[in-house]
Write a structure and sequence with these properties.
Layout lengths: L2 H11 L13 H10 L6 E5 L6 H7 L4 E6 L2 H11 L7 E4 L12 E7 L8 H14 E12 L6 E2 L2 E2 L5 H8 L3 E12 L5 E11 L3
Parallel strand pairs: 1-2, 1-4, 2-3, 4-5
Antiparallel strand pairs: 5-9, 6-7, 8-9
């Protein structure tokens, strides 16, 4: 089963609060974004936004230029329906981030909670980093959350890659200045915990 078929199946079969990564509000992500982009005109893209409520909370705080990308059309459709007419203010992108056709130097903040650790092939990770460098403005911010070294070895039936701050920095390279790294113990809807690593990078200007 290819990635798109897998995720369409997941989102068609399960409600938003029936997946392990569900949180009612992504408070840690939201706080990092607010620190990175106090200007409400900042262009923000949420990678793998799916059915997450981060976009709802960003709208509530007054951000004007929001973009949500997910590989699953079903996930995007659910979120759009939840938002109602407000959804018209969001730029929705249904694509695999590794091959997505994104505009160059368009975004001030790139946020990804729980996509990067699904990229188990080195070529996928190289393509992802290339996408970030092309799509984010020089001096822009990149917020990545992955499973930490004590996190699960699989998620949604798929193999993942676990990271600490050093190994994640190595994947992204010298253009990415690590500003902050922290851990979060995420409590799943099934009353288990998962360790997440959050890293906040600044893209240096060459």
């Amino acid at each position: 089963m290819d990635s798109k078929t897998h995720w369409e199946t997941v989102y068609q079969a399960k409600a938003a609060n029936e997946v392990s990564w569900y949180r009612a509000h992504l408070d840690k992500s939201l706080a990092l974004i607010e620190r990175a982009a106090p200007d409400l005109n900042a262009a923000i893209i949420d990678i793998g936004g799916g059915e997450a409520t981060l976009v709802d909370d960003l709208i509530e705080r007054g951000y004007q230029h929001l973009n949500v990308l997910d590989i699953s059309q079903a996930a995007i459709d659910t979120t759009r329906q939840r938002l109602g007419t407000v959804a018209e203010r969001i730029n929705w992108i249904v694509a695999d981030i590794v091959t997505a056709d994104l505009p160059s130097q368009q975004y001030d903040v790139w946020h990804d909670r729980a996509v990067f650790h699904f990229l188990t092939l080195p070529a996928q990770r190289v393509a992802y980093v290339r996408q970030v460098l092309d799509a984010v403005n020089p001096g822009g911010h990149v917020i990545i959350a992955t499973f930490g070294l004590d996190g699960p070895e699989k998620c949604s039936g798929l193999e993942i890659v676990r990271y600490d701050a050093g190994s994640l920095q190595a994947e992204f390279g010298d253009r990415f200045q690590l500003l902050e790294a922290s851990m979060e113990l995420h409590k799943t809807p099934f009353d288990t915990t998962q360790q997440f690593l959050y890293c906040h990078f600044l893209i240096t200007i060459t």
